[in-house]
Amino acid sequence: MQTKVSVNALALPIVKHMIANAGKLRLKVERLGNGCTIIDAGIDAVGGLEAGRLIAEVCMGGLGTVTLTHNPAFPRWPVSVNVHSSNPVMACLGSQYAGWSLSHGEGKGAFYALGSGPARAMATKLKDGAEKPVEELFEELGYRDVHGETAIVMEVDKVPPVELIQKIARACKVETDSVHVILTPTSSLAGSMQVVGRVLEVALHKAHSLHFPLGHIIDGSASAPVPPPHPNFVKAMGRTNDAILFGGTAHLFVKGGDEAAETLAHELPSSTSRDYGKPFAEVFKEYKYDFFKVDPMLFSPAQVIVTAVESGRSFHAGKLDGELLERSFGE
Fold first, then answer.
1. Can you give the chain as a three-state secondary structure string?
2. Taking a C-beta distance cutoff of 8 angstroms, is the pair 80, 325 a contact?
3. In terms of CB atoms within 10 Å, which end of the chain has fewer, N or C?
4. What is the topology classification, in CATH, of domain 198-331?
5. What is its EC number (predicted)?
6. Which CATH class is domain 1-63+93-185?
7. Pairing between strand 249-254 and 150-154?
8. What residue spans in the chain does CATH classification 3.10.340.11 cover?
9. Residue-wise pLDDT tens for the chain (331 aa)?
């Protein structure tokens, strides 16, 4: 899947806008000794929904539009995030997906995070004597970005060590003063917003897991309610997941035959998972907080529409679940 679009070139103006309007957005911006720019959206800064909205657009590499509206589908939780991209595969899988595993140190002082955003498309490593993308997904996408600056988003509650930032810069082949690190704790308003802003991305990721041809997905939009934040990390994470699992809707426009489109529609909803039926925090606890034991097929929107653009037919599957959403958000 070849493209000349640079997700970093498109995302950096949004990052610069956030820096220029840090006071208005209630962000804390600082430069570390190595020149890296840290944008705190919820650790020592207040942040907010607008900061989270902009971070979601950064995550999508500037290839997506993220808006806030009120949706009557859930009267008690009306604030909704709406996401659209006319290049959904590159926006969601080539940038937004949190696929770069980052770590430094060992034991209690270790730092670990999953990196998302446009830096992923620049990151490379040496493997078997050849330069390869840090993530194998980019070999499948046939995409690598090159740009003079980059940005990475981490869903963490502390600033990463300078050694890790240097590692990011080396992988992306830029100087550390060209790296922008955006930090959004899950328990913050901005953190909640940017996670739920992945409602389209989880649909794309599950479609990929189901081996639907990525090149056949040509457009997409999605929405989900924005959950109230929670100071407890597990409950905060649970609510952001549940917003998508029980309240998310995705609409994909695809090429190819009707049979493939209908099959995708029926396999995509979260309700097809063996772990569907209770708030995510409860599922997580039952697996003794081992994320990798959770059925990966759970992570997808509650309901989907898949439109086969060549025939004009649309296929609907799944449904919104207000009762489970209330159990998650209202406790």
1. CCCCCCHHHHHHHHHHHHHHCHHHHCCEEEECCCCCEEEECCCCCCCCHHHHHHHHHHHCCCCCEEEEEECCCCCCCCEEEEEEECCHHHHHHHHHCCCEEEEECCHHHCEEEEEECHHHHCCEEEECCEEEECCCHHHHHCCCCCCCCEEEEECCCCCCCHHHHHHHHHHHCCCHHHEEEEECCCCCHHHHHHHHCCHHHHHHHHHHHCCCCHHHEEEEEEEEECCCCCCCHHHHHHHHHHHHHHHCEEEEEECCCHHHHHHHHHHCCHHHCCCCCCCHHHHHHHCCCCHHHCCHHHCCCCEEEEEECCCCEEEEEECCCHHHHHHHHCC
2. no
3. C
4. 3.30.1030
5. 3.5.4.27
6. alpha beta
7. unpaired
8. 1-63+93-185
9. 444 799 999 999 999 999 999 999 999 999 999 999 999 999 999 999 999 999 999 999 999 999 999 999 999 999 999 999 999 999 999 999 999 999 998 878 899 999 999 999 999 988 877 889 999 999 999 999 999 999 999 999 999 999 999 999 999 999 999 999 999 999 999 999 999 999 999 999 999 999 999 999 999 999 999 999 999 999 999 999 999 999 999 999 999 999 999 999 999 999 999 999 999 999 999 999 998 899 999 999 999 999 999 999 999 999 999 999 999 998 7
For the purposes of burial, counting CB atoms within 10 Å of the CB of 79, is it exposed (0-12), middle (13-18) or buried (19 or more)? Answer: middle
Residues 247, 262 contacting (CB under 8 angstroms):
no
Q: Please state whether beta strands 37-40 and 303-308 pair in parallel, antiparallel, or not at all (unpaired).
A: unpaired
Encoded amino acid at 231, one letter: P
Distances (CA, A) of 77 to 57, 224, 244, 247: 23, 10, 13, 10
